[in-house]
User: Fold this.
Amino acid sequence: MMDEVHFAEETPAAASERNGAWKVMIVDDDDFVHKVTELTLGDYCYQNTPVQYLHAYSAAEARMLLREHPDTAVILLDVVMETENAGLEFARHVRQEAGNSFVRIILRTGQPGQAPERKVITEYDINDYKHKAELSEQRLFTAITAAIRSYRDLRTIDQGRLGLQGVIAASSELFTVTSLPDFFVLALEHILRTGRCAGPSCSEFGLVGAARDGRFDVFETRGLCVQEPTTRMLELFGNVALDRRVRVLDREFAAGFYNSHTDQDYFLYASFGRPLDETEQGLLHILGGNIAVALNNLFLTEEIVATQREVVLTLGEVVETRSKETAQHVKRVAEYSYLLAIKAGLSEERAQLLRMASPMHDVGKIGIPDSILFKPGKLTEEEFNIIKTHTVIGHSILKNSPRRIMRTAATIALQHHERWDGGGYPHGLVEDETHIYGRITALADVFDALACDRVYKKAWSLEDVLAYVRDQRGRQFDPVLVDIFLENVGEMRGIRDTYPD
Assistant:
């Protein structure tokens, strides 16, 4: 793209208000130099952007001015001011102490012998060296244009470097997210952040929507409040839905994603309120592609987890049905366990793991003889001891799997009949020697067994169930979990009613 350099037809103030300004700092103890410099450059513009002049009459003033304006593009610097080397010391400060490698420094001196050109260019990282007598109108114009162009290119390169680092970091973060809603929230934030790498806009906004069966719903927004998609958005969504592509336009980002497992379309949209430069557009294309890859991985992971959960639930239902329990029992135990885990302060990830694994708590019953499992009368002590072995059998079935869900299920199968006071089986564990998953499942399992009908008994009243749980606080059950249970009886009851037999 060719540079465009001309003198503006509109006033610098109007252009500056619209586009900002290139900042040129004049550092010289001679007020006449300041006035002549501005007069010589006149209404100078580079790429339709005017110049804002900053004035410092000493190196000390220049330091303060640079702190206020770190985005200064060019410094026109005198050498001799409050001291013979004040200008050179300021140049050293700019590069070493302020760490500013972007600003272009043009040294202007009326005493070349005071600052030999080769020495200062090398030692002070000066970009240009001019004798004050050389700076005619055309030469000053050329020097300023070359300096601003160089500053622009350096900032563009750095903007791209930082933007690419941001995209890499964003992509890495997106690949760690396991929740679809959290993923879209994070993706939208990164899209808006990447689109403002050259500067923010007060009117930027974004949204996430989902479409199925001709219905479009907005479920996440950032920036302006958007309740319904505009005609323009729907048009873009229709386009990206056809080819599943990321589209980066002059001021907009749009991308469509399809989850084939659930037959669900998702859309990401962002409007930046100003034209995107080439760097921003390129970074958004990269980020959009990475979002698509991460999202497809998440879709696949969710499908695998859903399949695992369905298999576990089905196996748990088969076991419960064989032992004359109801198929809904394992679903209720899973939901009770999840609720108690969340209320007990376990992370969402751990609570979900417990939710998926707890339906396997009685899987060991498949190893119990039918003559004992289905005996209508009271079990003998020997028969009851055989029933107890279902915990060990279940553990042995599940323990050798490398999958977290199976290893967790193995722990639950082994420990869900342990008691807080040590009177449980198979190992007589005391208090928190039993894993929190086992303690939670034990309470959930007993609550459901008492609160629901069985072939051999009618459901207890809720009052009787609560009285039993209170009585077993610190005996059969973890006292902290009992307190949590009693505080959330309403939600536990709601789960029971949601999955009736």
Summary: The chain has three domains: 5-158, 175-298, 323-498.
